[in-house]
Design goal:
The chain is an alpha/beta fold. Helices cover 40% and strands 26% of the residues. The chain is built from 4 helices and 5 strands, in the order βαβαβαβαβ. The chain has helices spanning 12-20, 38-43, 60-73, 85-97; strands at 2-7, 27-33, 50-55, 77-82, 103-105. The mean pLDDT is 82.
């Protein structure tokens, strides 16, 4: 089971959620819009089943869409977390294109 998290504003709260609230057995993949400095990456303690992936702003939404479709088609996508209303609206459109039972959460 995979939970995709599209993070456009501040990744720390999303990561904290995944360490305390993620469903048992679920892998949480945080797609961060923008880059993380090397110093910041060095400070981040690895957590099993929680991944942070920094994606350049110019390709964030195409990459997010590809991962959304991939995990949905292989049947592993269970939920998508977003941090703003505009992203939630976009994901609502994607979910209409691909008939599946995915929870969208803001």
């Amino acid at each position: 089971m995979v939970v995709l998290s599209f993070v456009e504003r501040g990744w720390q709260a999303a990561r904290e959620w995944s360490m305390t609230q993620r469903p048992p057995g679920a892998t949480v993949i945080h797609l961060i819009k923008g880059s993380l400095d090397a110093e910041v990456r060095a400070l981040i303690r690895p957590v099993p089943m929680v991944r942070l992936i920094a994606i350049p702003r110019t390709v964030f939404w195409p990459v997010a869409f590809i991962l959304f479709v991939w995990y949905a088609c292989v049947g592993r996508l269970r939920a998508v977390l977003v941090d703003n209303a505009r992203s939630l609206k976009r994901l609502g459109l994607w979910a209409k294109w691909i008939p599946l039972s995915v929870t969208l959460v803001q």
